[in-house]
Amino acid sequence: SATTSKTARLLEKITSAQAKYNIFTSIRKTDQLRDVGTTTAAIKDNICTIEEPTTSASGILKNYISPFEATVVTKMKQFGTTIVGKTNLDEFGMGSANTNSIFGTTYNPLFPNEKRIPGGSSGGSAAAVAAGVVDYAIGTDTGGSVRVPGAFCGVYGLKPSYGRISRWGVLAYAQSLDTVGVLAKDLDLLEKVYYKLDGYDIKDPTSLSPEYRKQITKLQETHKDKENLRIGIPEEFILDLLSDKVKSGLIQSLIKLLEAGHEIVPISIPNIRYAIYVYFTIASSEASSNLARYDGIRYGVRSSEDINNYAKTRTEGFGKIVQDRLILGNYNLSSDSFEKNFLKAIQVRNELRVQFNKVFKFPNVFNSSREVGDIDFILSPTTTSTAPLAEDFENQTIPEGYAMDILAAPASLAGLPALSVPWYVDDDIPIGLQIVSQYGNDAQLFTAARLLR
Ligand code: GLN
């Protein structure tokens, strides 16, 4: 019958993509894929489902099965998506290449003949979309983890405003930065899925409240985009680090926008310069607190030698990168460093928010002074280059690896919505262009992305 052949085709795609690119941490059983719905999707394995383990690609949660499912997962089922499985990631979302996983590296389907990274940490989700296995995939973005893999795999990658999509059932990495995002090849589908998932959730204490949602909707009604937009290019984003291809792509896109009658305006957001340092200070600190719950008592794996304390469990369960981050985070929160590093980072982050508020035409509902600027949206590349070879990435130093998020982290720190859009320069390997809007104004990302099509 038609259904069975649909299932067979889907299974065939999953199996062959898995063999080539190592995309999934678990794949649903054939009988769970019997009735293929209107859309198919994959879910990053740091989001709770009840059908299979939720591992976060960590030894400490190997075989852990959640007793409940995340709000996003329930919503996806409600609107008729067939979930095919869970996708690979960097352990607990810590990484930019998807090389840091107990399941091994995921490879980038844009390069079937080379071993290139898909970007991280939602590398499996981006690869599942890029390989054509699913219509869309869910990822999480704390400091670039949906946008960076979106850019490297040539698909749209959306990080919504902080608090718009529920985090209930999403394993916390850095709770003041974590967002749930969506990856897709098709912009219209991405937009549809976003609107289905966007909504207040009483179970998530950081969910954007119905009152603020109403205020934003009202502002959106009075701030309809004009014919001629003012597009801001922060000078802090024009880095020597940008590859020639990324530079050409950015310039081509600016010419297209100019030719369509829009204005390109150089702007300055000085604290973008410090964003990457501030990001890693805050993210590691929050992680050291969030990951304290993995003690072998309440969740997941427990070391057989762990009799009197849980240090053994944590030493065996966490990978090296996670351990480094936890040590860094604990240090940042210690009396030696709290004021000097952690509070300083919070202060620079707050200033960054104020600087963004001064730029956008659209007001920030959380900014009581309602000070605004005259820019409609911000444009930059998403990453400084296209996807590196896995071996080149492995040979990088830790700070070089951190620098992968240099263009993505600012929007995360300010909680702003951002979308990575594929842009083709001269061959079939696109770069990612990043659109950033004011807090709450996620809708504008889609209209802005259409200007680039
Ligand atoms: N690469 C960044 C990190 O390792 C961002 C990851 C993410 O957004 N989850 O923290």
Automatic annotation (TrEMBL):
It is found in: Mitochondrion. Residues 42-445 form the Amidase domain. One of its GO terms (molecular function) is ATP binding. InterPro entries: Amidase, Amidase_CS, Amidase_dom, AS_sf, GatA. It catalyses: L-glutamyl-tRNA(Gln) + L-glutamine + ATP + H2O = L-glutaminyl-tRNA(Gln) + L-glutamate + ADP + phosphate + H(+). It comes from the Eukaryota. Its main location: mitochondrion. Keywords: ATP-binding, Ligase, Mitochondrion, Nucleotide-binding, Protein biosynthesis. The keyword Transport does not apply. Its EC number is 6.3.5.7. The active site is at 44 (charge relay system), 121 (charge relay system), 145 (acyl-ester intermediate). SUPFAM superfamilies: Amidase signature (AS) enzymes. One of its GO terms (cellular component) is glutamyl-tRNA(Gln) amidotransferase complex. One of its GO terms (biological process) is mitochondrial translation. Allows the formation of correctly charged Gln-tRNA(Gln) through the transamidation of misacylated Glu-tRNA(Gln) in the mitochondria. The reaction takes place in the presence of glutamine and ATP through an activated gamma-phospho-Glu-tRNA(Gln). Belongs to the amidase family. GatA subfamily. Subunit of the heterotrimeric GatFAB amidotransferase (AdT) complex, composed of A, B and F subunits. This is Glutamyl-tRNA(Gln) amidotransferase subunit A, mitochondrial. It comes from Wickerhamomyces mucosus.
